[in-house]
Amino acid sequence: MIDVIDRIRDIVGDSRIFPEESLKNYTTFRIGGKCRALVMPSTKEEIIKVVTLLRETNTNFFVMGNGSNLLVSDEGFDGIVVSLKFFKGIEVLEEDDKTFTVRVMAGELMSSVGNYLARQGVEGFEFATGIPGTIGGGVRMNAGAYGGELKDILVNITAIAEDNTVVTLSNEELELSYRTSILAKKNYICLDACFKLNKGDSLDIKAKIKEYANSRKEKQPLNYPSAGSTFKRPEGYIAAKLIDEAGLKGLQVGGAKVSEKHAGFVVNVGGATAKDVIELTDKVKEVVKEKNGVSLELEVVKLGF
């Protein structure tokens, strides 16, 4: 592992690799132990070289965006974490009176992209502007909110395939569906994504973004660390409603708590451990299954378990 870390250092430089780094402060849950090393490549070439090296040396690794849908084990992750947070950029590919096509690097925050597009008077991305994740992570899980999903506006992506070649995948080839894609099913890594949107009125677009932001603030427990929606929506049901009806709002294990503001969120009210979260979510799943016969599935990705 030391040799691999040294070889990665040769690729990204001393300032972008952190051996034995705690992942706690790199996730929105503020939970988790250390990884063997955290790497932060800033170019497409660096990412490809690092991923190729890790695969060729059979090194355990995980690619992370904003850490907003992630629960890291208290014991950490016995491998390399590749963070794409410094891999940013927005390129306008085509623009006319009605449409606007952009290519966005995987490390760009969806909030940054949404605000950029609003300034350009481009509509269609408002729903994603409040999602606290990156483009790469968003595409991988087909992120969505307020009736919109990335699949509605996505043209194609560039990704690193399992054989380390760089491929272009169309919207159809990505097999985008509720909170999943071919990227989640195969070992593909998103490098950038192309979106085609429509021109609109900048003031109207900004007003819609503000409306969605106010709605989130009103309905979601944004004052506590969390990983966002904790459970996937079961077909025909709403997870938060099932949890609320089961009387589980406010249920707490250690520092992990089912939010009293929105039952679909498990929040870190102070000093929560991954063990607390797992124990709490297991209890929620057990009670909901017992009372409603519905099996809840975690939306949060687990690392190091």
UniProtKB/TrEMBL annotation:
Cellular localization per UniProt: Cytoplasm
The EC number of this protein is 1.3.1.98
Q: Nucleotidyltransferase: is it a keyword of this entry?
A: no
* GO BP terms, alphabetized: cell division; cell wall organization; peptidoglycan biosynthetic process; regulation of cell shape
Q: Which PROSITE patterns match?
A: FAD_PCMH
Question: What InterPro entries does its record include?
Answer: FAD-bd_PCMH (IPR016166), FAD-bd_PCMH-like_sf (IPR036318), FAD-bd_PCMH_sub1 (IPR016167), FAD-bd_PCMH_sub2 (IPR016169), MurB (IPR003170), MurB_C (IPR011601), MurB_C_sf (IPR036635), Oxid_FAD_bind_N (IPR006094)
Keywords in alphabetical order, please: Cell cycle, Cell division, Cell shape, Cell wall biogenesis/degradation, Cytoplasm, FAD, Flavoprotein, NADP, Oxidoreductase, Peptidoglycan synthesis
Q: Specify where it is mainly localized.
A: cytoplasm
Q: Which Pfam families match?
A: FAD_binding_4, MurB_C
Q: Where is the active site?
A: R179, S229 (proton donor), E299
Task: Provide the GO MF annotations for this entry.
Answer: FAD binding; UDP-N-acetylmuramate dehydrogenase activity
**Which reaction(s) does the protein catalyse, per the Swiss-Prot or TrEMBL entry?**
UDP-N-acetyl-alpha-D-muramate + NADP(+) = UDP-N-acetyl-3-O-(1-carboxyvinyl)-alpha-D-glucosamine + NADPH + H(+)
Q: Which cofactors is this protein said to need? A: FAD
Q: Annotated pathway, please?
A: Cell wall biogenesis; peptidoglycan biosynthesis
Q: What region holds the FAD-binding PCMH-type domain?
A: 31-200
Q: Which GO CC annotations does the UniProt entry carry?
A: cytosol
Q: What's this chain's function?
A: Cell wall formation.
- Family statement drawn from the similarity comment of this UniProt entry: Belongs to the MurB family.
- Protein name, per record: UDP-N-acetylenolpyruvoylglucosamine reductase
What is the species of this protein? Lachnospira pectinoschiza
Q: What is the lineage of its organism?
A: Bacteria, Bacillati, Bacillota, Clostridia, Lachnospirales
Q: What is the name of the gene encoding this protein?
A: murB
